[in-house]
Amino acid sequence: MRILYGVQGTGNGHLSRARAMAAAFTGQDIDVTYLFSGRPAERFFDMECFGDYETRQGMTFANINGRVNYLRTVLGNNYLRFVRDVLKLDVSAYDVIITDFEPITAWAGRLRGKRVISMGHQPAFDYRVPVAGRDLRTELVMRLFAPGDVRVGMHWDKFDAPILPPLVDVGEGPVLKQQHKVLVYLPFEPQEEVQRLLRQLPQYDFYIYAPGSEQRQHSNLHLRPTSLEGFRADLHDCAAVICNAGFELSSECLALGKRLLVKPQGRQMEQASNALALQSLGYGAALEELDRARILDWLDHESPVPQIHFPNVAQAIVRWLQAGDFREQSLRSLSDRLWRKVTVNALPVWPPVTGKRELTAP
Predict the structure, then answer these.
(1) Where are the domains of the chain?
(2) Equal fold, 2-167+311-339 vs 177-308+347-360
(3) CA atoms within 13 A on the CB side of 190
């Protein structure tokens, strides 16, 4: 089997899912070519597992001060180049095309009558899942940005639909908790504002990751450039995470049993809906704006921490692909089997703040 696998590169969550799938494809009789778009080629990092991958400019969404700017999004994309890339992409040699919200591979396959599997979080919104701020514009984006004739959605609950559990890749290593250590990933927010706010909470150490950042320390702020291994190490031993409401990082926090506070990107329906789902399920807290008092109250508040064991979804998807049965009944059966393996545990409450900083097992 030959697969063309398209990955949207604007967010690292799509890349995380692709890395997990790359590991599951290893050793199988499947030839996979990866194509990434949505960010400049030089800004991709830790891509060795994808072999001789390809990149295109693709399409992306403009962000200003933590909010999606639709006017700049419309004016900022090169549509002529996008159409040219779609028409020039040769998909004749592939049996199946997988797209994780990547539009060039999706449209190239659709126009040439290829089997296109749209896989990721976005297809889950085809069903009755928690939704905040849905309108015709977001409906069209979800359906038409990277269309597929088979749509495989993922979410934190089955919601009585053929949805799969999250495809989580948290790496290896012990899961510890450094009680005052907080991981921060808010790439869509003004970083000066993030740092100014968190500097006012000196009783906590904040490890702040952001694109283009240099590694340095200012008082209780530990600034870090985006990286795979460094981020994973800090995620494994932090006690809490403050981040935008992206799906993949939130899933990793749930798998590791980390306290989670999300701030959705403004005017972004998917992230607002993720925040709603996390709160509805009791898996995390959310805030609409970055606010010192709200963050401090959340950090100081003792509450049980859910830890969710997700099965190896990537491995199950590979077997499903090899079987070649893409009917809804087959997808529903796969969903049922995987959700029967999901378990949710409540970890002990996070100890209140003290003067002592130590590493403890959860």
Answers:
(1) 2-167+311-339, 177-308+347-360
(2) yes
(3) 8
Residue 192 confidence class, pLDDT cut points 50, 70, 90: very high
* Structural domain 2-167+311-339, CATH architecture: 3-Layer(aba) Sandwich (3.40)
Residue 347 CA: distances (Å) to CA of 80, 157, 176, 197, 306:
52, 19, 12, 29, 6
Sheet strand arrangement including 54-56: 54-56, 31-37, 2-8, 96-100, 115-120, 150-153
What is the per-residue pLDDT across 2-27, written as a single tens digit (0 to 9) for each? 999 999 998 788 999 999 999 999 99
> 235: which 2 tokens?
């995620």
Residue 247 CA from chain centroid, whole number: 4
Task: Provide the pLDDT confidence category of residue 213 given band limits of 50, 70 and 90.
Answer: confident
Rounded to an integer, what distance in angstroms lies between the CA atom of residue 199 and that of residue 192? 11
Q: Which amino acid, 351? A: P
DSSP states along 46-95: S-GGG-S-EEE------EETTEE-HHHHHHHS-HHHHHHHHHH---TT-S
Q: Measure the CA–CA gap between 60 and 38, rounded to whole angstroms.
A: 5
Roughly what angle, to the nearest 10 degrees, separates helices 269-281 and 247-256?
20
Tell me the per-residue pLDDT of 52-79, one tens digit each, with 9 for 90 and over: 999 999 988 766 666 666 667 777 889 9
- The token duo for 139 is 């409906």
Overall pTM > 0.85:
yes
Please state which CATH class domain 177-308+347-360 belongs to: alpha beta
Q: What is the reported pLDDT for 70?
A: 61
